[in-house]
Amino acid sequence: MFEYINGGVLFFIIILIVTYFFENKEKKSWTKTFIVVGLLLLLYEGYTQSSAAEDNARLFKKGKALKCRSGGGLYDKADRYRVSLQDGWVLKGDSFIKESLMIRTNKCERL
Asked: What is the pTM of this model?
């Protein structure tokens, strides 16, 4: 589950924790609230991504086809791939692999 935690959000929470120790008493309650809520959201996101990866791996092993995305970002659109055993993909760890292409299992959805 922890491999799916967003590093940027974790860094932000660490900054909040550090600033908590340098604030006056009136502001500490708000900072503490942000830290707790942020950690809970971070753990929830990691859990849902981990669950999605496990579900997709289970579906793949049953022979179901998945629609996966790879790449994408702010200035580029994501490429979409059909992933299934019949198409020559293999499951290794938490990734689908075909030739030189590797897609994480949590980046897919059922067709």
From this structure: 0.75
